[in-house]
Amino acid sequence: MQITLIKPQGFCGGVTRAVSLAKKAKEDHPSKDIYILGMLAHNQTLIDDLSKQGFITLLGNEEEEINKLKKGDVIVFTAHGHSEYLDNLAISKGLITYDATCFKVKSNLEKIQKEIEDGHQVIYIGQKGHKETEAALSISPQVSLYDTKLLINYYLITDKNPYVINQTTLNYYELTRFYDDIKKHIPGARFENEICDATRLRQEAMLHIDKDVELIVVVGHKKSSNTNRLFDIAKTHYPDALVMMVNDVEDMKVFDLSLIKKAAIASGASTPSYIVDEIYEYLSKYDSR
Ligand code: SF4
Fold first, then answer.
1. Is the C-beta atom of 202 inside 6 A of ligand 1?
2. How far apart are CA 232 and CA 219, in angstroms?
């Protein structure tokens, strides 16, 4: 089987920093439990690895989870961003906080804040329920969600020049469609493309593999937005290929791939590279099975 590794692979800068910061919290407070408020980044293997190292991931309602902690406990906020309300709640409880919000997400949230202070309304293109989206919406009621599936109620927007910004891990190629729709309703809207490089480069690379590829393996967690978008792009652009999204090599073992001659492996920005190596090795041995 001929196998192409679609690059980039491995953690993006935001996830690398989040993992380092969580480890720093542990070094700074060796005798304490380190709590992480939600998945540090959206990958189950990463969360399992952190758990083996003693980190405790809190998966319940964030406000309730913070309220259960006591003064002096250590909490790490995840790479996806969070509301100022949760920040203030943690501080008021006397928790020791570490903020692993990715720089790209942070700058995105700051741009929204500035537009609100300048008196503008903001249209945020994102996925309802995603933590990054929730953080953006929490800034002000003047931020309206343009959900990638449900779109938007335009009557909410009275500003003739609203600022349009987006979640960092959407489909780069789908944004134009949303822009066109918004422009039709609000010609004076101002747009800022905030797809992060880690997401964009993976999507670009996905478009440039051999057209006759028979199998595309997208490695990552079902909650990972950038992994899901890679999967969508692969399905759309390679309709004749078998496209699968897997968390790890175990997920692949249910498939009979004996007839596949040409495969490609892509992975999300929060997928540990050793998982991709294991899948590469698994596929490499297929011919000799
Ligand atoms: S995928 Fe992009 S936005 Fe998310 S953590 Fe990585 S660099 Fe930051």
1. no
2. 13
Residue 226, ligand 1, Cβ within 6 A = yes
pLDDT in tens, 2-34: 999 999 999 999 999 999 999 999 999 999 999
pTM as predicted: 0.92
Q: Is the peptide bond before 162 cis (omega within 30 degrees of 0)?
A: no
> Which residue's alpha carbon is at the smallest distance from atom 2 of ligand 1?
196
Average pLDDT value for the chain:
95
Distance 168 CA to ligand 1 centre (A): 7
* Full set of structural domains in the chain with CATH: 2-10+198-288 (3.40.1010.20), 13-103 (3.40.50.11270), 106-195 (3.40.1010.20)
132 flagged as catalytic: yes
- Whether 109 is in the pocket of ligand 1, judged by its Cβ within 6 Å, is no
Summarize pLDDT for 86-142 with one digit per residue, the tens: 999 999 999 999 999 999 999 999 999 999 999 999 999 999 989 999 999 999 999
Cα–Cα distance between 122 and 113 in angstroms, integer?
9
Question: 198: Cβ below 6 Å to ligand 1?
Answer: yes
Enumerate the β-bridge partners of residue 123: 144, 164
In this structure, how many other beta carbons lie within 10 angstroms of the beta carbon of residue 77?
24
Q: Which atom of ligand 1 is nearest to the CA of 168?
A: 3
CB atoms within 10 A of CB 272: 20
| Cα 101 to ligand 1 centroid, rounded to whole Å | 9
